[in-house]
Amino acid sequence: MDDEERVKRILLKLPKDNTFNKLCNALLNGDAEKAISEAHSLRNISVNLGLTHIKIASDSLITAMSGGELKKEIILIFSSLKNNYKKTIETIKELS
Span 70-92, mean pLDDT? Predict the structure, then answer.
């Protein structure tokens, strides 16, 4: 198996990963500690897969939640992360 096939095989696992859904649920339930934990997990996954745009958006969300930013700002940051994540998932699904 060459490097391209290996990367593709790993990327195809991302749509099945539950981290983003756990982050959404934590935010909906107002569980800041869980949301920060899941945002860290999503950031780590994105770093490992080279998904820079998700990493940057995750970092911004972590910083906003940790720094006590206004709720409105967190919603805007999360909206950006959500859009990036959905576009990435759609692109990955096209690989299969």
Answer: 92
